[in-house]
Amino acid sequence: MDIKKVATYVVSVFILYTIITSPHRAAELVGVGFEGISSAAKGVGEFMTALVG
Q1: How far apart are CA 12 and CA 17, in angstroms?
Q2: Contact, 19 vs 26, CB < 8 A?
Q3: Which of 10, 11, 36, 52 is the most exposed place for a label (fewest CB within 10 A)?
Q4: How far apart are CA 36 and CA 19, in angstroms?
């Protein structure tokens, strides 16, 4: 089997298990993930602004 397929399957099963067994914790993790993405995007925007300015 392809390692990438196996890894994707394992991660998918883990995510489903987490959502089913602890939906509140899963929601917190999603929130933290979106905060991280938002912070990264803000940082990139500030960096680009500094390059232009």
Answers
A1: 9
A2: yes
A3: 52
A4: 20
